Amino acid sequence: MDLQTTWVALSLAFALGARHGLDPDHLIAIDNLTRYNASRRPLLARWCGFFFAMGHGMVVACAALLFSRLGETTALPYWLECLGAYFTIGVLLALGLANLYSALNARPGDIHRHIGLRASIFSNLLRVSNPWLISGVGAGFAISFDTMSQAGLLGLVAAQGAGWGLALAAALTFTIGMMTPDTFNGLIMGQVLVNPSNGSVKARRIISIIISLLSLGGAAYQLANWLAPSAFKLSNTTELGMSILLVMATFACYMTLHLSRRARQ
């Protein structure tokens, strides 16, 4: 494979990664992971998007290498596809419920603390305050037909050219592309939720409730799409539009709180 074709393949991999990073379930999960860690580990909260995308990308890289060696795509076993779907649904549901409970019951001035969760089931289910665990959540989200299809495409393109070396380069480029929107989204949401001077407690409570409801809505959509894909599957254009709106809404929240803080000074 000549140099020009290689650059085209890597550019395609980056574009696919950036598009994949804008999937609504990615953004919703990252927002909720950021929300969950806002008071526990503020620095980590800002980088939840990065670690989520890193774990997701590692699965893509391994799958692309496998497909490049096999020279063909292999469908996921049905049980594994079920496991990946229910993992995604379970994480979105659990994070949404935990964050909603916290937002509705937190004391004034302590909007991020999960009151009473140490004694509840969510305390054991949602201890995702470790970079490796957040990467593990991202890896779990990668066990899906769509993700494996993209990994297979990267692997097969590489298999027709320079072999596993190009497959690895394409997979890493895909991961970098995916990290770009996911990291940006996490940094902006972290800035909104971590900094206590950003807006009033009421405003941050409203944002937290919206994030939680998006997570619950995402879980409901994933479940409906899994049970009846022909009835609930959205087009790629619609999903991309939703993702762009989510990123724009995140940035709008940051700007609104930032401007309101400056107006009070």
Compute the number of helices.
12
The profile of the biggest β sheet is: none
Structural class by sheet pairing and helices: mainly alpha
Mean pLDDT, nearest integer? 73
The helix/strand order is HHHHHHHHHHHH
Low-confidence stretches: 111-126
Tell me the fraction of residues in β-strands, as a range. Answer: under 5%
User: What share of residues is helical?
Assistant: over 70%
| End-to-end Cα distance | 60 Å
Overall morphology: globular
Radius of gyration: 19 Å
Q: How many independent structural domains? A: 1
Number of strands: 0
Summary keywords:
0% strand, globular, mainly alpha, 265 residues
Draw up the topology in text:
Blueprint lengths: L2 H19 L2 H14 L4 H5 L1 H23 L7 H28 L15 H5 L5 H11 L3 H15 L4 H31 L6 H27 L1 H4 L3 H29 L1
Helix pairs in contact: 1-8, 1-9, 2-4, 2-5, 2-9, 2-10, 4-7, 4-8, 4-9, 5-10, 8-9, 9-12
Question: What can you see in these coordinates?
Answer:
- The chain is mostly helical.
- α2 packs across α9, α2 packs across α10 and α4 crosses α8.
- The longest helix has 31 residues.
Brief digest:
This protein has 265 residues and is mainly alpha-helical. It has twelve helices and no strands. Helices cover 80% and strands 0% of the residues.
